[in-house]
Specification:
Elements (H helix, E strand, L loop, with lengths): L1 E9 L4 E9 L12 H15 L2 H4 L3 E6 L17 E5 L7 H12 L3 E4 L17 E5 L9 H9 L3 E5 L4 H9 L4 E3 L17 H13 L6 H9 L2 H14 L8 H8 L1 H16 L5 H20 L4 H13 L2 H5 L3 H5 L7 H8 L5 H12 L2 H10 L4 H22 L1
């Protein structure tokens, strides 16, 4: 079973929930098994057994239902305060369906109409809907102004799907949309200037360059870190956490205790956090999830230890352009990296690119590419969901230690 998630933001770019994308196995259809009923049942059962909070944390899960599975008692396995029931756009509407929707609304579940293309006033399910989802690729904002206004007057929440640019995000906000889904938040806003020589970035690059030397010096690293009191404090704090709060007496001792690879990983994470202070926290979280997921995929593909470490860095830096509002080439300029990382991120080539493509495909729910790349890398299908879920948990632990 594959389960990935896509964030849904409010108008302050805080995560409101996650839409769950799923597929049962390599032999299934888009929704899995012989019908969408089987796939949704498997997802609901899997989420219940493994703990839905391990996938969506304390946010809402948006899960698709069809006219068959909406009648199943399995729906009630997930509590109303954990799930939004999404009705698929091609659903068959009849009296039993409308009665069931009223029942689950009375139980406290929120209902969303997915990929809404109908005439708002005449569609039979709009009275049951709490959230109306518009796919901006199918229904551009200019074509739905009247219906969106009508929905707002009736207290509906408007959700814009497939928002690809900041301009679309701003336009949708002005029209009254308050929920947003898409990759606009992870794309750079090129403002006509470069921040590549900012003091924070240069300081981190000096540290990374020292770490990439054939014989890195702990003394040189400690001296660079001590030039920034905030960075010094955070390194000491991390080392303390790693040592179960045993005495960590100096920066140099903290570095030797952690080891070079662990130092590099933490410094990269701290760099992204510092440089992305004005960005949604989810962007930082995605970079950490990708770091862990990519490194695990490289391990399962039996790449060398150094290649596994490079895969983790590649995943971590894969959203650096969005964090810095630069092109990826500008963002990576000045960082001493293994050639395989810029090859994957800039050129779509090199030994790490298959790992990158598998990671990105799984994240987006591109199951055809996921299956093809996992087979090419000899990675068992069943391990992907486990590894992805573990990467989410790991990222949450990392972020909690950064606060």
């Amino acid at each position: 079973m594959f389960i990935a998630r896509q964030p849904i933001f409010n108008d302050q770019l805080d995560v409101y929930g996650y839409e769950l994308l799923f597929r049962l196995n390599s032999h299934s259809s888009q929704f899995g098994g012989v019908s969408s009923q089987g796939a949704t049942a498997a997802v609901i059962t899997g989420l219940y057994e493994s703990g839905i909070e391990n996938i969506v944390e304390d946010k809402l899960a948006f899960i698709n239902f069809d006219e068959i599975f909406i009648h199943s008692d399995a729906l009630e396995l997930i509590k109303p305060d954990q799930m939004v029931v999404e009705m698929l756009e091609k659903i068959k509407i009849d009296a039993p369906l409308m009665a069931r929707l009223q029942t689950i609304k009375d139980q406290g579940y929120k209902i969303a109409l997915d990929d809404f293309e109908e005439v708002y006033h005449s569609y039979p399910l709009t009275p049951f809907a709490d959230i109306i989802k518009y796919d901006l690729m199918v229904t551009p904002l200019a074509t739905i102004a009247a219906d969106a206004a009508a929905a707002l007057t009736q207290g509906k929440v408007l959700l814009a799907e497939k928002v690809e640019t900041q301009a679309e995000f701003q336009q949708a906000k002005e029209m009254g949309f308050t929920l947003f889904q898409g990759y606009f938040f992870s794309k750079p806003i090129i403002a006509g200037h470069s921040v590549s020589k900012s003091p924070t970035k240069l300081q981190y690059f000096k540290l990374i360059s020292e770490l990439k030397k054939d014989d890195p010096s702990y003394d040189a690293l400690a001296e660079l870190i001590q030039q920034d009191v905030t960075l010094a404090y955070r390194v000491m704090r991390m080392a303390s956490v790693r040592s179960n709060h045993d005495l960590v007496s100096s920066i140099r001792y903290a570095l030797t205790y952690m080891g070079l690879n662990e130092i590099e990983r933490w410094l990269n994470i701290l760099m992204l956090q510092d440089l992305g202070k004005d960005k949604p926290e989810e962007l930082m979280k995605i970079s950490i999830i990708r770091s862990r997921f990519a490194q695990t995929l490289a391990k399962r593909a039996l790449l060398t230890y150094n290649a596994q470490h490079s895969a983790g860095m590649m995943g971590l830096f894969s959203v650096l352009d969005g964090i810095l509002d630069q092109t990826m080439a500008e963002a990576l300029a000045g960082i001493t990296l293994p050639p395989s990382i810029p090859e994957a991120l800039l050129d779509g080539s090199g030994p790490l690119y298959p790992i990158y493509e598998l990671m990105a495909a799984y994240e987006k729910g591109d199951w055809a590419t996921t299956l093809r790349r996992s087979q090419e890398l000899n990675i068992e299908e069943y391990s992907l969901y486990h590894d992805y879920r573990e990467a989410i948990q790991w990222a949450n632990e990392i972020i909690s230690n950064l606060d």
